[in-house]
Amino acid sequence: MELDKYCAIILDLLFKRHENSSSQKNLSLGINEIKREVKPNLGNEYKVQNLNHALDYLLQNELIVKEHDLFSSPKGVEKETNVKYKISGVGIASKEKPELFLPNPGYASSINISSVENVTIIGKHSKVIIHTKYKELGEKIEELIDLVQDNASIPKKDKADILALIKALESLFISETPNIELVRKTDIDLTLKLKKWSTTLGENVLVNGITNLITSYFGI
Fold this sequence. Notes:
The protein contains eight helices and six strands; from the N terminus they run αβααββαβββαααα. The protein is α+β, with helices and mostly antiparallel strands.
């Protein structure tokens, strides 16, 4: 299918970006950056609508993640700005271990965990694939996602920023040997983001538990 070409190119592009990035800020690409990379690979076959369809397909199947800022107009209308895309933990798994990739089974009534070789699949709101070595850490991260998503006291903008950092931290553990410096920095950024909401989130008990686990794994 024609759409497959676009999906394969975009996913490969974002995967390479993930592999080569030394900073959390550099993991994502804006739409214009993606267009510049995709167009030369397709030549005369390139169509903007097909690119948009491919991005939508990858998002719907949780192979990539969309990041954005929220802008509120004086009338209270929220708009997405500074939209960027990056590969998700599921997308990374599909590139590194395609034989283990499974389509998203949808929402579950409780956290569902299963292990295949060295990969653990954790899923409630969205399936997460991490290395089995970090299974306990993955469970804690899923709990934190629930805690943040269900908290009505946190404004939408702050909640989106926090969840993006949680998912970023989570995606680093698909590999048995993640980038330690990136893990350390993302964990610090997440802790700082959550600090102002420590009371409503239970004094950061889960965050401290995650940090302690990271320290026990990597000594940082």
